[in-house]
Amino acid sequence: MLPMIERTERSDAGLYDVDPDAAPGMAEDERGHARTLAKLMSGRPDPRQQIARREGWHRGDRSGALRAGVFGVSDGLVSNTSLVMGFAGSGVARTTILLAGVAGLLAGSFSMGAGE
Description:
2 domains, 5 helices
């Protein structure tokens, strides 16, 4: 797998050099990826240290809680909205729709809490 990734990175090393929409530093980052993979392929001693120094953001697990929160909110909104819309479409009384929404909200909250 590594040789295929290295070939792809080497062929894309200059991809952002001429791209007017590329953010500053993207071209150098892309060339850095190609250099790092070339070193991995050459068998030089411990290239992992260079990767850790160059791309320190890969070491942290800071996005796990944020990602879980965003997906949880999105899932809760979609499922509860669908539940309420289903009840509303059936033609039942407003209080029944409200009760279904609150019940769905509580059920989703307890489910997410138990899952975490």
